[in-house]
Amino acid sequence: VGAGGGDYAQEVTYKFVGCGQGEFDVVSERQTRPACLFIGGCVGFVLLFAVMVLLLIPTPTTTTTVLTTTLPYDCNAGLSNWQAGWSIAKKGWCCQNQKKGCPPPPTPPRPPAPPPKPPPTPPPPQPPTPQLPFDCNAGFANWQAGWSVPKKGWCCAHAGKGCTTPPPPPPPPPTPPLPYDCNAGFANWQSGWSVQKKAWCCQNGGKGCPPDVSGCTSAPYDCEAGFANWKAGWSEPKKDWCCRHTGKGCTTTPCPTAR
Question: Which residues, listed in sequence order, are joined to residue 33 by a DSSP beta bridge?
Answer without folding.
Answer: none
